[in-house]
TrEMBL record, chain A:
Cellular component annotations (GO), alphabetically ordered: endoplasmic reticulum
Domain of life: Eukaryota
Keyword Metal-binding: yes
Keyword presence, Coiled coil: no
Protein name: RING-type E3 ubiquitin transferase
GO molecular function terms attached to this record: ubiquitin protein ligase activity; zinc ion binding
Source organism (scientific name): Dimorphilus gyrociliatus
From TrEMBL, chain B:
MF (Gene Ontology): ATP binding; transferase activity
Protein family per UniProt: Belongs to the ubiquitin-conjugating enzyme family.
Location of the UBC core domain: 4-154
Domain of life per record: Eukaryota
Catalytic residues, chain numbering: 92
InterPro entries: UBA, UBA-like_sf, UBC, UBQ-conjugating_AS, UBQ-conjugating_enzyme/RWD
Annotated keywords: ATP-binding, Nucleotide-binding, Transferase, Ubl conjugation pathway
Species in which this protein is naturally found: Dimorphilus gyrociliatus
Phylogenetic lineage: Eukaryota, Metazoa, Spiralia, Lophotrochozoa, Annelida
The name this protein goes by in its record: DgyrCDS8956
SUPFAM superfamilies named in the record: UBA-like, UBC-like
Domain UBA: 162-202
Length: 179, 202
């Protein structure tokens, strides 16, 4: 809300010595954000402030800046350098949401490490082991069957789809064997 | 007042003082007392409206739970507007109720009120009499609103006002001495002298 040129006088207790500091002010208390979190719509808040906003009146789960839907689970914490946020007293409010990390896809490389798809199918039984691997390998490269039609879909979706197709294929093979 | 409310009001205050709207004399904000819980706002009637040139004073009370709850704002200057009570100055504006958002400020509230003066919402009225007139007799509404602006908000006169002053004088001669109730009666009855008189009789 605060415009970029709004600087605060030196009498302020926070040393907001230049205008860029106001870019890191909480949109609720207008102070430099403590336990900073950012919403999916990109707005910065103190975690205690936004938590109080979400609980102040029931059913008001909209961003205080842009009124986009917000959700307690979808805030991203911001960790600056040298933050000692473990020591913050946050007993009155639930802890700030955890950052969510996903391993980069590319680290798997070419190798024979076919990832989660594989281990999940083991659970069904060791019998069709050979069959699985033949499905699995082309799958990951996106050349198998229907996966093709989805073109440049995001990697996660592709993975999910390939899992679904794999299970359908497994089921189909079982059915063939049993019939 | 809680700490967060106080520090925020102080910051907002600085922001308003430096804003372009204050420099252009569109809005004003000053504390009633030193503790920033009770403030006085002023907005100028926007151009191309019946309120043009009027000065409207607002009473602003900052609740303990600010900014999680909206400030309580009402007009101290009497105004003829569908969304503002002609009697009490109470305002019907969504952002002062359930549509309040914590990132809004006193500056944006004052600007929103100015916008409300330019664009009334007669389907969501605060003053049903005014809203009915707004919809059924827009011409009378406009001249009534500018008459109120002239009488209460120091807006400039126009030629229509002579006729209205004449009717007020006639009512006064009939023995109705209270000026505000004469104005309200005539305004509510679309400046029909007979109807206004019946309205005023006990």
């Amino acid at each position: 809300m605060s415009s970029s040129d709004s600087t605060f006088e030196g009498s302020d207790k926070k040393e907001s010595d230049n205008s860029s500091a106001s870019n890191y002010e909480c949109n609720i208390c207008f102070d430099v954000a403590r336990d900073a979190v950012v919403s999916m719509c990109g707005h910065l808040f103190c975690w205690p402030c936004i938590h109080r906003w979400m609980t102040a009146r029931s059913g008001r789960m909209t961003c205080p800046v842009c009124k986009a839907d917000i959700n307690e689970d979808k805030f991203i914490p911001l960790y600056g350098r040298n933050t000692t946020d473990q020591q913050d007293p946050r007993k009155k409010v639930p802890p700030r949401p955890q950052g969510q990390r996903q391993e980069s896809e590319n680290t798997n490389g070419g190798g024979f490490n076919l990832g989660e798809n594989f281990s999940m199918s083991f659970g069904i039984g060791a019998f069709p082991f050979g069959v699985f691997s033949t499905f699995n390998v082309p799958d990951r490269q996106g050349h198998y069957g229907h996966g093709h039609t989805h073109g440049p879909a995001p990697n996660q979706d592709e993975q999910f789809l390939s899992k679904v197709f794999l299970y359908v294929a497994v089921f189909f093979i079982f059915w063939l064997i049993l019939a | 007042m809680s700490n967060i409310a106080l520090t925020r009001i102080q910051r907002e205050f600085k922001e308003v003082i430096k804003s372009d709207e204050v420099k252009n004399c569109q809005i004003k904000l000053e504390p009633f007392e030193d503790n920033f819980t009770h403030l006085k706002g002023e907005i100028i009637g926007p151009p191309d409206t019946p309120y043009q040139g009027g000065k409207y004073t607002l009473d602003i009370v900052i609740p303990e739970t600010y900014p999680f709850n909206p400030p309580k704002v009402k007009f101290l200057t009497k105004i003829w507007h569908p969304n503002i009570s002609s009697q009490t100055g109470a305002i019907c504006l969504d952002i002062l109720k359930d549509q309040w958002a914590a990132a809004m400020t006193l500056r944006t509230v004052l600007l929103s009120l100015q916008a409300l003066m330019s664009a009334a919402e007669p389907d969501d009225p605060q003053d049903a009499v005014v809203a009915t007139q707004f919809k059924q007799h827009p011409e009378i509404f406009r001249s009534t609103a500018s008459f109120w602006a002239y009488v209460y908000a120091e807006a400039p006169r126009n030629e229509k006002m002579k006729e209205y002053e004449e009717k007020l004088k006639q009512l006064q001669e009939m023995g109705f001495h209270e000026k505000n109730s004469r104005i309200t009666a005539l305004s509510s009855k679309n400046w029909d002298l007979q109807a206004a008189m019946e309205f005023l009789l006990p």
